[in-house]
Design goal:
By secondary structure, the protein is mainly β. It contains six helices and 45 strands. Helix 4 crosses helix 6.
């Protein structure tokens, strides 16, 4: 798992995740499933006023059966990665912060108190650009509170430690204070494992005790490229699996000292359980319990069955939830899920011979692409608050969506899964799930990286009165007087943009409706401020017969509402193929649409209909909520009924949509976007205009994933785009860049926007077709960029004089 995922290293905002209604292998995106029915029946109640002059509610309301609410009275955290109870019966909870601190939270009648339990920040190695380093795991000894036990006050942490030679993955034992167990004794750290690593990513970090009293530690593969020396290996170093160790050093028939050390690491202070699966294997590091894992970020035991569930984020094709046992081999690196990697990665290794362990396919897998990825982890729910969830595996992916996976066969088979909750402010996504002493669930989410903006949430059942019924059909929204002819209602004013976002060749129409006497006004930095109740409408038509361009099919109409909470919510209305019906899209859907080419041949084009959760993935705080309605897009001419042309902003002022103060904004205050085919503009401006419209939603300074700034107003030399580092594209060689002047093959930007591979595809949301006109433009732009003059080494002649 990458808290700043590797596939986003060159930038994506948190996007639509996925999961499957599934048992076995499927390529269906997981969000395309039936939402769980609410525990209390939804009723047509609108607790908020209507938006402007429409019948859309001012707030989008809840549409999933559970609400996520802050767990600790508004306390926030630095990159929270884990939640676990202090095992003393007090109800206090421990929150692990990546920077190297553990916070102790205590709920009481006057609120919630937060105190530092452990601080090892001075020992932590962490890289903010990857965010997989830091304090990653915490586990309390089962006898932590036993006054008669030598293990009273004993706990364990796993972290990436700073060393003179780099960093190391470290497992350490600590002791609490003698007189009490809610503080840490100075100087009590004892290092059990020090495993030097070569990469800041794939350190895994889950740490927990089993019912057998042994400590389990999940380890990543150190993000090595193929052939990865750590995967499928138990004789080299401690990577790519789950370890099982006896920290009590019981000896006898139970356990024995390690027979050998890792090749580069050091271990001590624990024994090897004698029933570990690789005990006696030649040259084995006998700590290994499970192997063949890429980066098993989180694992958990079912309290009832004691089955061990391990999640493993994929690289290109599959996200996995695994049920493992002694000797399980989860197939990395020769397979992702149930897919042989050589089907899409020729350099991937074959299934090893001889084979180690027991080949273990995933319990559950789902497709991974640029918009659906990064499973985090979960727990089989055994709490009391939600009886309807008992026995289901509740898990999350990094998009902020939470699912319940139904299990059969004693927890060894997955039959169906349902979306049950969505984080209100996912930030850069859910980083972990935890439980309290009674089995109730907690969800950690990171806000802005390396700031005290992270949150810990709990579930609450959605109350009946909270369910807001967004109109189910386009006709019911009230945005059109005649929805079949798209005749706008009173106050719905058309507008157009200079350069449209690429939408797979669709034609679009746009309208805006401002509430009465509440015009669009200027905010800071020449941006717009929208009153609550402002409504935007965008309609999509698609040409289905290139031989007859007039043959156009109505595809979808989207409505975006500015709510009274400073945000937005959206609704997509899908048109039937015959154009006679529309229906709201609750969960994202796809459709195969037949297209007739100019030469008479036919092909299927996949159209993606965004569900209600998908809208906020682009229309969010980082992007400014409203995308196309801005000064860069609107400063253009529009035709009047008499055939003349007038400035669009002037018309919007005349229609009482935009305040007149906007006209006073200096033309130089914001650059003007330029269409791709405007030959009067420079190639540089046309190319960077396209990147502004299609990339800056994610690639801007307000997001956590912006490897570069795509906004046109930014100085080209300061965008981080030209010669910018493009992480995790090593297959292009060491000289690849986001944009490498004069070198298209080594420019990752061109690679991703010209690829139809869903793993690489940019932009990743709402598009399956490559924009060939833009691809050619960007190619020409890269080729036109001046290349740096290479330095020439000085050469000397026989007399040692410089030539």
């Amino acid at each position: 798992m990458h808290i700043r995922h590797r596939y986003w290293a060159f930038g994506l905002a948190t996007l639509v995740g996925c999961a499957l209604l599934y048992s076995g292998t499927s390529s269906t995106p997981p969000e395309l499933v039936t939402v769980a029915a609410p525990v209390k029946a939804a009723v047509a109640v609108s607790p908020t006023p209507l938006a402007g002059r429409t019948k859309m509610p001012l707030r989008g309301g809840h549409w999933v059966p559970y609400v996520c609410e802050p767990a600790f009275s508004g306390h926030t955290f630095f990159d929270p990665l884990y939640v676990v109870p202090l095992p003393d019966g007090s109800g206090r909870m421990m929150v692990v912060e990546r920077r190297g601190t553990i916070q102790m939270l205590y709920q009481h009648t006057e609120g919630c108190t937060k105190d530092v339990f452990l601080d090892i920040t001075s020992q932590i190695e962490q890289m903010l650009n990857e965010a997989e380093q830091g304090l990653l795991g915490l586990a309390f000894h089962p006898q932590y509170t036993d006054e008669m036990s030598p293990h009273r006050g004993e706990f364990f942490v796993y972290y990436t430690a700073r060393t003179p030679n780099g960093s190391t993955n470290r497992l350490s034992r600590f002791f609490a204070l003698d007189e009490r167990i809610d503080g840490v004794k100075d100087g009590s750290e004892v290092v059990l494992i020090d495993q030097p690593d070569g990469h800041q990513a794939h350190n895994a970090g889950s740490l927990l005790f089993g019912a057998d009293g042994f400590l389990y530690l999940a380890l990543g593969d150190d993000a090595k490229t193929d052939p990865n020396p750590h995967a499928q290996s138990i004789t080299n170093d401690l990577f790519s699996g789950v370890l099982r160790i006896d920290v009590d050093c019981q000896g006898g028939a139970v356990s024995h000292p390690p027979k050998r050390q890792p090749t580069t690491g050091k271990t001590g202070g624990y024994f090897i359980p004698s029933d570990n699966p690789f005990v006696g294997h030649p040259n084995a590091l006998e700590e290994f319990f499970v192997i063949g894992l890429r980066n098993p970020w989180r694992m958990s035991f079912d309290r009832e069955t004691q089955l061990l569930y391990v999640t493993d984020p994929g690289e290109q094709r599959r996200e996995e939830i695994n049920v493992v046992q002694a000797g399980s081999n989860c197939q990395w690196t020769y397979a992702e899920g149930t897919i042989d990697r050589r089907e899409f990665e020729p350099a991937a290794p074959l299934r090893p011979v001889p084979y180690l362990g027991v080949e273990t396919p995933p319990l559950f897998e789902y497709s991974r692409d640029a918009a659906h990825r990064c499973v985090i982890g979960g727990h089989v729910y055994r709490g009391k608050q939600f009886p309807e969830l008992i026995g289901k595996y509740v898990y999350a992916d990094q998009s902020g969506r939470i699912y319940a996976l139904e299990l059969t066969d004693g927890g060894r088979r997955a039959t169906a899964q349902k979306l049950i909750a969505v984080l209100p402010h996912p930030g850069i996504g859910i980083s972990s799930l935890g439980e309290d002493a009674t089995g109730e669930l907690y969800f950690c989410t990171i806000g802005d990286l390396a700031t005290e903006t992270g949150q810990v949430y709990q579930l609450r059942r959605t109350e009946t009165e909270e369910w807001t019924q967004v109109p189910a059909t386009l006709a019911a929204t009230g945005v059109f007087d005649d929805w079949q002819t798209l005749e706008p209602a009173d106050g719905l004013i058309p507008y157009d943009v200079t350069l449209a976002f690429w939408s797979d060749g669709a034609d679009k129409q746009r309208w805006i409706s401002a509430p009465h006497l509440k015009q669009v006004r200027l905010a800071q930095q020449s941006s717009f401020q929208f009153a609550p109740g402002t409504v935007f409408v965008k309609h999509f038509d698609l040409a289905t017969n290139r031989q007859r361009p007039e043959d156009r099919r109505r595809i979808e109409t989207r409505v975006l509402v500015c709510d009274d909470q400073g945000g937005t919510y959206g609704a997509t209305y899908r048109w039937s193929a015959d154009g006679q019906k529309t229906q709201i899209v609750e969960l994202s859907e796809t459709e195969e649409i037949e297209i007739t080419q100019a030469d008479g041949t036919h092909h299927k084009q996949t159209w993606y209909y965004p569900g209600r959760f998908a809208c906020v993935l682009c229309h969010n705080e980082a992007s400014g909520h409203v995308l196309g309605f801005n000064l860069k897009q609107l400063r253009r001419g529009v035709k009047c009924p008499d055939g003349t042309t007038e400035p669009q902003l002037a018309r919007l002022v005349r229609e009482s949509v935009v305040a007149s103060e906007v006209l006073a904004v200096s033309e130089s205050s914001m650059p003007r976007l330029t269409p791709l085919d405007d030959q009067s503009a420079s190639l540089d401006v046309r190319a960077r205009s396209y990147l502004d419209v299609n990339c800056s939603v994610c690639h801007n300074p307000n997001t956590r994933f912006a490897g570069f700034d795509a906004r046109l107003e930014r100085d080209p030399n300061e965008q981080g785009l030209i010669n910018g580092a493009a992480y995790h594209h090593g297959s292009l060689g060491p000289h690849q860049r986001i944009v490498k002047p004069g070198d298209v093959p080594l420019s990752v930007l061109h690679l991703r926007m010209s690829s139809a591979d869903p793993v690489l595809r940019m932009p990743p949301v709402g598009s399956t077709v490559v924009d060939r006109q833009a691809e050619q433009l960007i190619r020409q732009w890269i080729e036109s960029l001046p290349q740096p003059v290479p330095e020439v080494a000085e050469v000397s002649n026989e007399n040692n004089t410089k030539l």
